[in-house]
Amino acid sequence: MEKIFKNLNDSQSAAVKQTEGPVLILAGAGSGKTTTIISRLAYLIEVVGIPPANTLTLTFTNKAAREMKERSMAMMEKNGAYPPLLCTFHKFGLLFLKFNIHRLGRQNNFVVIDTDDKKRIIKKINSELPTPLIASEISRYKNSLMSPDDAYKQAELFNYKQIAEVYREYENHLKENNLVDFDDLIALTYKLLDENPELAQETSQKYQYIMIDEYQDTNELQLKLIQKLCTSHNNICVVGDDDQSIYGWRGAHIRNIMEFDEDFEGASVFKLEENYRSRAPILKTANALIEHNRSRLGKSLIATRGEGEDVAILNSNDENEEARKIALKIQKLLDSGVEASEIAILYRVNVLSRSIEEGLNRAGIGYKLVGGVRFLERAEVKDLISYIRVITNNHDDFSLKRIVNKPKRGLGKASVDKIELAAHAKGSSIFEYIKTVDFAELEALVKKKNATTLKKFIADIDDVARVAKESTYEFIDVLEDTFHLKDIYVNMQDGQERILNMDEFYGLFRDFIKNHPEASLDEFLNELTLQSEQDQVEGESIYMMSIHASKGLEFEHVFVIGMEEGFLPLVGDGSDLEEERRLGYVSFTRAKESLTLSHAGSRFYKGRRSDLAKSRFFNEAGLCDGSLIVEKKTAYKKGDLVRHKIFGTGRVTGVSKSGREFKLQINFAGTKRDILASFVERL
Ligand code: ATP
Ligand code: MG
């Protein structure tokens, strides 16, 4: 009990003790919201005596879930108990579907596909319309619980009728191959609970206390799911911050926070107003930025950690200089004893990570890329995954086609197409067809040599599948020995690296089986897919990740790169400046001790070098050179040398105040001019 309350303030303690009924904790960044819900979890289990299995705690990213689990377990004394379920929404959906998908007439050895697979399936169905558009529309349909029929009826434009058709075929493909996409993990879970009231009742009784972190990022479907989980009670505690809502593009709704009281009647509301994370200058900068948003509740947040370093601004000519400067700064931090895992580099768009990666590599600084170009999306790893998929589910034609000629077995695309047609004509999968068809019939379709190859390929898969059933651990060696997958890459230019990646994958597999001896292959695959969407293994290196992935996390030292117009804020079709500002706010508020904001004068992007303007967020956050002077009174003084974009170099001859800024009198080669301080650079 002491452990639970010793680090909480009065409002936090009150929220922890309010265990019954709906509770909303609404507060700014770093005010201890997450701390409060994990303390509440510990309180429920340790003090109130609720069995851990009767609680459910949900959040959005794997890394956040892992950290929350560790922190809550550390608060609990009775550690031997069955651990509470604390995971992401998607993981919860996965577990739920494992036990219940049979009610939809589907088997529970389904495979979860990632965004990459999804796009490939779509592209195969329709290569005319832009794949990303179809992908996001399908996602939108699923999140609005619209069937392909609904989508078709609702579509007015021809293109949208077409998209609805693709959606129909896509759904059929998933069902036929027993695949499930990310949206399904939530949508099907909801569907099952909605269509089976007794199941909703039972599930709700199982999870008597529900807690949700980052509630501002839930969408309508997630809210509906939560309501189903609350069928038999209303013990729901949510925490969130409207200023950190960064998933608007995915349908997240601040409405869910604003109208919590309507969705769950009789809610108690708690506010937390002290920030325990960031040094005062960091918080001040973040607060100044977010104040420019109009649609916000407007909460106050007071720094409790005292003064500290000013927010640093890093100016570079281009991304290479930026990478060098950041590597240098990080090396200094490491040399002074800062732990690598306490340093993070954040960016709005993933492509920005590349130049920094190079800089860190050159400096010999280890880093971990969270999300980004994913290990699992590399071709050689995808091949391995496809093998495992075919082994667990023979009917996965998509994966089978990927591997049937890898390593090369002399099978051309034409032969494979013929087989596919023949198989579909018989209403069977390619695998099934080759396995059951008479050799003579096969030979009539493709060359004899190919017919033999295909029969052998299928027999080999069957053999390996048998091993997998007996011993999952041995399976991976047998897979390599049977198909000689590494041979594919031996003579390739970057073969060595690819083989290393394969070895890493094999290692990952062995680790997983060691930790989950009872697990089957499809469980391994699903875990992998779920992890890959967000993050990778932990370790002794600094972190690099998108701002989206950094939500809820904190680091001693944070670098935000790409602070330029076009990158942060990202401007363009469908971008929302207020959401961009919230992203800025999220990124700034990850920092505890120091925050460095970096911008480059130009970047090589999309095949060409472009000049970039400094982000307006510097100005808004009160960080333009001019207002810095106002803040710090380290004003320009007579005699300072400055440079102006147009007038060139000059010397300050006088300083006066002009509104919130300072006005400088500058002598540019004999001509005196009055210029606002923010328009010049000190030399
Ligand atoms: P975010 O909005 O970024 O998700 P949060 O509100 O969830 O932030 P936490 O991550 O729970 O905030 O807490 C931020 C930091 O403050 C953590 O390091 C936590 O240990 C610390 N903290 C929380 N509450 C207190 C407290 N009452 N006293 C001292 N430190 C606290
Ligand atoms: Mg949090």
Task: Give the SSE map.
Layout lengths: L1 H4 L4 H8 L5 E5 L5 H16 L6 E5 L2 H14 L9 E4 H12 L10 E2 L2 H11 L5 H13 L4 H7 L3 H19 L2 E2 L1 H14 L1 H10 L2 E4 L7 H10 L6 E5 L14 H4 L1 H4 L4 E5 L1 E2 L4 H11 L11 E2 L8 E7 H17 L7 E5 L5 H11 L3 E4 L8 H14 L4 H7 L9 H13 L4 H7 L2 H7 L2 H23 L1 H12 L11 H21 L5 H12 L9 E5 L8 E6 L16 H12 L2 E15 L2 E4 L4 H5 L4 H8 L8 E4 L3 E11 L2 E8 L2 E6 L3 E3 L1
Parallel strand pairs: 1-7, 1-8, 2-3, 2-6, 4-5, 6-7, 9-10, 11-16, 12-14, 12-15, 13-14, 15-16
Antiparallel strand pairs: 16-17, 18-19, 18-22, 19-20, 20-21
The structure holds adenosine-5'-triphosphate and magnesium ion (MG).
List the main descriptive attributes of the protein structure presented here.
single chain; 683 residues; alpha/beta; Rossmann fold; Arc Repressor Mutant, subunit A; 5 domains; seven-stranded mixed sheet; six-stranded parallel sheet; 17% strand; binds adenosine-5'-triphosphate; binds magnesium ion
Describe this structure in words.
The protein has 683 residues and is an alpha/beta fold. The chain has five domains: 177 residues, Rossmann fold, CATH 3.40.50.300; 66 residues, Orthogonal Bundle (Arc Repressor Mutant, subunit A), CATH 1.10.10; 161 residues, Rossmann fold (3-Layer(aba) Sandwich); 153 residues, PCRA, domain 4 (Orthogonal Bundle); 43 residues. Helices cover 48% and strands 17% of the residues. Strands 11, 12, 13, 14, 15, 16 and 17 form a seven-stranded mixed sheet that branches. It has a six-stranded parallel sheet with strand order 3-2-6-7-1-8. It has a five-stranded antiparallel sheet with strand order 21-20-19-18-22. Helix 15 links the parallel strand 9 and strand 10. The longest helix has 23 residues. About 1% of the residues have low confidence. The structure holds adenosine-5'-triphosphate (ATP) and magnesium ion. Magnesium ion binds next to helix 3. The site of magnesium ion has 4 residues, from helix 3. GO terms for molecular function: 3'-5' DNA helicase activity; ATP binding; DNA binding; hydrolase activity. It catalyses: ATP + H2O = ADP + phosphate + H(+); Couples ATP hydrolysis with the unwinding of duplex DNA by translocating in the 3'-5' direction.
